[in-house]
Amino acid sequence: MAPAFSDRPVDGIPAEFLAAVGFVGGVGQVVQIPGSVLYGLGVVGDLDADAVRRAAGELARSVRGHRHLAITVPDGYSRPFVEGFVLGGHRFTRYQSDPDIAGVDRVDLITSDDPAHLRAALVVAEAVVLARDLVAEPGDVLTPIAFADRAVEVASAAGLECEVWDEKRIATERLGGLLGVARGSRNPPRLVHLRYLPGSGAPTALVGKGVTFDAGGLSLKPTPQMIDMKADMAGAATVLGVMSALSALGCPRPVDAWLPLTENMPTADPIRIGDILRIRNGTTVEIRNADAEGRLILADALVLAAETHPTAIIDVATLTDAAAIALGRQITPVITNDPPLSDVLLAAATRAGEPFWPLPLPARYRALLASTTADLVNYTTGLRHGTALLAALFLNHFVPPTTPWAHLDIQGTALADHPYAEHPAGPTGVAVRALLEYLVAAPVAPSV
Question: Rounded to an integer, what distance in angstroms lies between the CA atom of residue 262 and that of residue 182?
Answer without folding.
Answer: 6
